[in-house]
Amino acid sequence: MYRRIHEAIIQSPPIDDFDIFKELKDQNFFESQESIIALCTHLQELMKTIEELDENQLKNEFFKVLQISLWGNKCDLSLSGGKTISQKTNLINSLEDLKPFILVNDMEHLWSLLSNCKKKREKASITRVDIVLDNSGFELVTDLVLADFLLSSKLATEIHFYGKTIPWFVSDTTLHDSNWIIEQLKHSNHKWVSKCGVDWENHIKMGRWVYLDHIFWTLPHEFSAMPQVAPDLYATLQKAHLILFKGDLNYRKLTGDRRWEFTVPFHEALNGFHPAPLCSIRTLKAEVQVGLQPGQGEQLTASVPNWLTIGKYGIFQFDGPL
């Protein structure tokens, strides 16, 4: 359907680059201003002391920005049938209350991997984190906050972002969305929001942030087919030290969108897709979930029958050697 819409538009100059979902995405961004201001303020205040933090303090801040990115995934216009879902309250204040809703929590694995990379890194070497993006608007801001923290903390030296080549699943991120949001932040009349926009634009200019898109992300294939269908993309991902897959559709494609038993290991459900250490960061909105403890899924079904699809629960699910 999305490709059909795009095909119709590109044959209709002068609207051949028109995004029919742009108004909805922009509305989500503008309605989330209070929380965006809080996030940018938190990040800029953190930057002032980040080099003075001890290892435990840095780890705690890392976990905080990871959770912000996770719960940002609730803002999904494809889940709401296009009705705006914005983040109108300060998400940072809710993180402790939301912790019980994280069903799989592999944040320790992410810290172990990236902190080891940082300790072993030679002066000229690179630690690259790839982020396969999901929604524009508020969620994209949370992902950019995470990416900036990774650079500032030296847990990574380079971030590669992957978005969609065409407007997709209502609120999915395109290059135009990413550039537009950074431009909006840069021209904000709030000093810390504006500072984030300026810093993030500079990361792009300096090559520390790289935005890439590829037609594979809008094809119907599960990710285990990538080596055959898009070997160039697979080879690119193999160069990453860590790949973060945001959102529900990416999880469905990671696991082949099959009705797995809840206890099937994540590694097995990936069906041979192991380009680099990877982690799914998602709030659950589809009837697929693996890697749970015995009985965990059944207990959830008994207490919250629609737990798989309501976006209330989240995961950090890691696969790879440490």
Supply the key terms.
methyltransferase; alpha/beta; single chain; seven-stranded mixed sheet; metal-binding; 7 strands; Sugar phosphate phosphatase; protein carboxyl O-methyltransferase activity; 322 residues; globular
Can you walk me through this structure?
This protein is an alpha/beta fold. It has 14 helices and 7 strands. It has a 7-stranded mixed β-sheet, sandwiched between helices. The longest helix has 18 residues, at 55-72. Belongs to the damage-control phosphatase family. Sugar phosphate phosphatase III subfamily. Keywords: Hydrolase, Manganese, Metal-binding, Methyltransferase, Nickel, S-adenosyl-L-methionine, Transferase.
SSE topology:
Elements: H1 2-10, H2 22-31, H3 33-49, H4 55-72, H5 95-98, E1 102-105, H6 107-120, E2 128-132, H7 138-152, E3 158-163, H8 175-186, H9 191-205, E4 209-213, H10 226-229, H11 231-237, E5 242-246, H12 248-254, H13 266-269, E6 278-283, H14 296-303, E7 314-319
Parallel strand pairs: 1-7, 2-3, 2-5, 3-4, 5-6
Antiparallel strand pairs: 6-7
Helix pairs in contact: 3-7, 3-9, 4-7, 8-9
In short:
This protein has 14 helices and seven strands.
> Approximately what portion of the residues adopt beta-strand conformation?
5-15%
How would you spell out the order of helices and strands?
A: HHHHHEHEHEHHEHHEHHEHE
Strand order of the largest sheet: 1-7-6-5-2-3-4
The major pleated sheet works out as:
7 strands, mixed
Structural class by secondary-structure content: alpha/beta
Mean pLDDT: 92
Helical content stands at 40-55%
Query: Judging from the principal axes of the Cα atoms, what is the shape?
Result: globular
Cα distance, first to last residue? 40 Å
Which radius of gyration do the C-alpha atoms yield? 19 Å
- Ranges with pLDDT <50 over ≥5 residues? 78-85
The beta-strand count equals: 7
**Number of helical segments with 4 or more residues:** 14
Keywords: Hydrolase, Manganese, Metal-binding, Methyltransferase, Nickel, S-adenosyl-L-methionine, Transferase
EC number: 2.1.1.-, 3.1.3.-
Catalytic activity: beta-D-fructose 6-phosphate = dihydroxyacetone + D-glyceraldehyde 3-phosphate; beta-D-fructose 1-phosphate + H2O = D-fructose + phosphate; L-glutamyl-[protein] + S-adenosyl-L-methionine = [protein]-L-glutamate 5-O-methyl ester + S-adenosyl-L-homocysteine
GO molecular function, one term: phosphatase activity
